Amino acid sequence: MDRNDLSERLLNFAVRIVKPVESLPKTIAGKRIGDQLLRCGTSVGANYEEAQGAESHNDFVHKLQIALKEVREANYWLRLIQRSEILAVGKMADIVDESAQLKAILSKAVATAKGKSKTALPIPADIEMTQKTEA
Known about the structure:
5 helices, de novo design (two linked rop proteins)
């Protein structure tokens, strides 16, 4: 998946979060769940965008991990809404599925990014010495 495609998909996910949040009942539970879902569901894409401008590989991995954490939380709140039947179950199936897919994509991205930092081999000392003496 292209970086821009994922960026657009995360933006669309944030847009899709708004509708169920606005539809939640104005009860204590509805307001609390809505606040939590709106916060994490809209921040996934923002954190992914921040990762694209990371200052280092470690910063990139860290920001991707935050995006993953936020999509996991959004998936939790969406499943809670679905199971508690606060909103019609049929209306929730697609967005719950999308959050699960995004969670899988970001999990793989984090694992790949972490793997790249672990597989980077240090320059052997004898090569470093050769390069220093040749300069």
